[in-house]
Design goal:
Layout (H helix, E strand, L loop, with lengths): L2 E7 L2 E7 L13 E2 L4 E2 L7 H11 L1 H15 L10 H9 L7 H15 L1 E9 L2 E8 L4 E3 L5 E3 L11 E3 L9 E8 L6 E2 L2 E2 L13 H19 L6 E5 L7 H15 L8 E5 L7 E5 L5 H19 L19 H11 L1
Parallel strand pairs: 13-14
Antiparallel strand pairs: 1-2, 2-14, 3-4, 5-6, 5-10, 7-8, 8-9, 11-12, 13-15
Helix pairs in contact: 1-2, 2-4, 5-7
């Protein structure tokens, strides 16, 4: 959490925010929650939801995953055999809102984001009548080797449902199938993880994905902001007469000098000196545009590497100087498969 620091020296008072931020956890802990009797997926038990937020907030990451899903399931499911009428009925998927093609697309997307997926099977008269995708980020394993579901694990009042694991010798009611890529034990601090939950296939690119999100936030705030970010305004005619007067000056500066999306990015300093004139100092340095363009380019390459992208053009990403062609794309697609 950011802390407000006060400095008073030689008639100068400064107030600024220490905006330190911890890096995201790439390899989450898996400790047993003794109250809920489930193994937490990360310290806050929300690590898969963090991965989902990366998917929705990073355009490159999002586009690669959606295209991978398209390459995987766009051909749809098919059946070759004598029981076409039975297959058509089965394909419609009982009373579900989604047919089996749509369910397979949802499972494929979960696999690309989380490295796992889950679905329930509803049996009627011993036969699978309906298959429904279950959000894998809402499932946690309990200490009895069962799977529990909560819409929001951060809410203690949210009801929890325990699913019955699929047993083909007991084809009754609703049962669940959970697939997760088997993880390796990872050292976190002085302990090893229990290797319950999977690491995402792009785990090496998580920092790059977060950096890409922050770069875009920075650019957006520059557009929204009428005052350049990282600026000190020195009022060199001394302190205002009252605390209320000082707050009025700061509020006016924030309201007129900044956009609403980044209030507080300008530092106001009241001091005595320099002939009592008001001075403005920019802290952001020179050539920020060039520096951010270089960082953005390197960052994009790291994300592509994390996803094992053999040719960016397969995902609609044009590389400078690359000619491309049908043969090259075909070779790259076969390599990716």
């Amino acid at each position: 959490m950011s802390e407000i620091n006060d400095h008073k020296e030689q008639g100068t008072e400064m107030k600024f925010y220490d905006a330190t931020k911890t890096l995201p956890v790439i390899n989450p802990t898996e400790n047993l929650d003794k109250r809920l009797h489930v193994y937490k997926w990360g310290d806050d038990n929300l690590y898969p939801n963090f991965l989902t937020s990366l998917f929705y907030n990073c355009a490159i990451h999002n586009g690669i995953i959606r295209q991978k899903v398209h390459y995987t399931v766009a051909g749809g499911l098919s059946y070759e055999g004598p029981s076409q009428e039975i297959w058509k009925k089965y394909f419609q998927n009982g009373n579900s809102d989604f047919n089996l093609n749509e369910v397979s697309a949802m499972l494929s997307q979960d696999l690309e984001i989380i490295n796992g997926y889950a679905f329930t099977v509803n049996f009627v008269n011993g036969f699978p009548f309906q298959i429904d995708q279950v959000d894998i980020d809402s499932l946690r394993k309990n200490d009895e080797d069962e799977w529990e579901f909560s819409e929001d694990w951060s809410d203690k009042k949210e009801p929890i449902k325990v699913y019955k694991t699929l047993d083909l010798n007991d084809r009754t009611g609703q049962q669940i199938v959970v697939y997760m890529e088997k993880p390796k034990k990872i050292k976190i601090g002085n302990k090893l993880t229990k290797a319950i939950y999977p690491a995402p296939p792009y785990s090496g690119g998580i920092l790059a994905i977060e950096t890409d999100i922050e770069i875009n936030n920075y650019r957006r705030n520059e557009i929204y902001n009428n005052f350049s970010l990282g600026t000190i305004v020195n009022f060199n005619n001394g302190q205002p007469a009252t605390k209320s007067d000082k707050e009025d000056v700061i509020d006016t500066l924030s309201a007129t000098g900044q956009g609403s999306s980044n209030a507080g990015g300008v530092m106001a300093v009241f001091n005595n000196g320099k002939d009592k004139e008001t001075t403005v100092t920019n802290l952001t340095g020179n050539n920020l545009d060039s520096r951010y363009l270089a960082l953005s380019k390197d960052n994009k390459e790291n994300i592509l590497l994390a996803h094992s992208v053999t040719n960016p053009m397969l995902f609609g990403i044009k590389t400078e100087g690359q000619l491309g062609g049908a043969t090259e794309l075909e070779v790259s697609y076969n390599l990716m498969k």
